[in-house]
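Predict structure. Chain length: 322.
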Amino acid sequence: MSGKVSIRWSSDAALSAVHAAHVVATGGFCTDQKTEQALVESVTDINNRLLSASLDIGTFWLRLLSETAFDPTNTRTCEIALLDSGCSKLQLEQTASVISNRLSDSRLAFQRRFPKLTEQLALRGRPIRDLWDTVGPGLLSNIAKQIWVGSPPNDWWPPRVDAVLVQPMRGGDGGFDSAAHKFWIEAVLTDSDPDVPEVLRVAWLVTQLAVETQTLERSSERTSERSGTLPWSIGSVPLVLSAGKYLDLVKGPELPIQAALQHWRLGDANTAAVVTRWWQAWQKDPTPMPVGLKHLDKLLGPARDSSPGRVDAGIDLTEFDD
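Prediction complete.
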């Protein structure tokens, strides 16, 4: 069955704490002001330490989030993130010791805000889990048919995926790690944008896992860059929305491409205009998606040049830039 994916859901307090710290540290849009205030002191100290050592703040937090999601039990996540952000091995031990202590302070402050977080996340995540059980297989089946113009391979979707629920900080957010066959998503109780239901974010995340598993070269070591060149993350947005419209999850005559790109932090209005034109042309003359994405990649060139920048690159756990 082309849309059959077994998702194992769980809650993760540790990843929630790092996600919250990442949002505060990078100045991202935050819907939880009390948590932001609780973390700001320790997180600011970490950023100041990174600045004094001439390290890349954004890269540090993204890699810390990625490594925590990949293996929550790894005690070297801070060191890995520091090395990736430019820390020399000579500075590593001392810098890691200081920052690890402040990360512990941040985690404790987060735990005081949410002492029963694991149980709360399980309850908060129930609506999206139940909805996914109902519409998920249909969404994935429709997406696969679009990608392969009606003839998807039987093994296109990964048979099993881990889904991790985290405490909401942005009113909707998520990321994925193809090496771990895992995605994480904020356990929001209601859709912050009714035009783009959160269950479609799940479909988009699972699609990214399938794409990376099937089409990208896998190296023996984890890196902070992807080997693929086609704009799957952006190009699959209208596919997911179209599948949602087919199942009556998306209302209105037009697909909310701009709303989805912005809500999922993938692009701005310039990018949305290009993707919309490309999607309209592709619908008139469908080709297998890898072929269609080559055309989209060419069209996105001018949009990238004129764009003020990607809207918050922190959504993809293993993607630090498109």
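Summary: The longest strand covers residues 160-166.
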